[in-house]
Design goal:
This protein has eleven helices and seven strands. Helices cover 54% and strands 19% of the residues.
Length: 209
């Protein structure tokens, strides 16, 4: 379901400029953490002047809070904003973890039948120490997947844990009622490659619902 993933990418680009997407991804991907200007600029790969303008506008809009600690100024996502949960979910699906993971997996996409994010990030309950949990189905070498995801791990500042199956292994485990798969397919997930159609084609239609 490439079109659905493209739509999410286009949505993020339409709503936010490149620097703002990166800034929001940093803060709403790590809402419990605070960051100072140089740290933010380094993390998002933008100049301090451009980042400072974004911080001022996002703080004025109530999406970030400005904190002073001694002589240092820090910024943090504002959990009191009325749209905190909705924005956090949108950022994860577009400019946040999902977008970064899609980009990292792009070079392997031709060999991937299905890939989705699950766990606390997909549920919107992630904390600072939460890992990024991904299931990937395809004719792939695990080492190649780990190598492809390494830049995403650095950008997200979180451990990325891929679980990789061949299509045959995925179907076999589903048919056997594998506990891990039946559990995660009953929870929230965010598709990175493919979608519900591809999941159904792999024999998971009944479990997915």
């Amino acid at each position: 379901m490439k079109g659905a993933n493209d739509s999410l990418n286009n949505l993020g680009a339409a709503l936010f400029g490149k620097t703002r997407r990166a800034v929001l991804a940093l803060f709403y991907g790590h809402p419990e953490q605070s960051f100072y200007l140089r740290e933010i600029a380094r993390a998002v790969g933008a100049g301090q002047g451009a980042v400072q303008r974004e911080l001022a506008q996002l703080t004025a809009a109530g999406l970030l809070v400005r904190l002073r600690r001694g002589s240092h100024v820090f910024y943090q996502a504002n959990p009191q904003t009325p749209i905190f949960s909705e924005l956090k979910s949108l950022i994860v699906k577009t400019a946040g973890a999902a977008d970064v993971l899609r980009e990292a997996l792009a070079e392997l996409a031709n060999d991937i039948s299905l890939a989705f994010l699950h766990g606390s990030l997909a549920r919107g309950t992630a904390i600072a120490s939460s890992d990024v949990d991904v299931v990937i189905v395809g004719d792939l070498d695990f080492g190649d997947v780990v190598t492809a995801l390494r830049p995403a791990q650095e950008r997200l500042q979180r451990e990325v844990n891929p679980t990789v199956y061949t299509p045959a292994e995925f179907r076999k485990k589903l048919q056997a009622g594998h506990h891990f798969l039946t559990t995660i397919l009953g929870t929230q997930r965010i598709f990175l490659v493919g979608g519900e159609r591809e999941l159904a084609e792999l024999g998971a239609k009944r479990l997915a619902h």
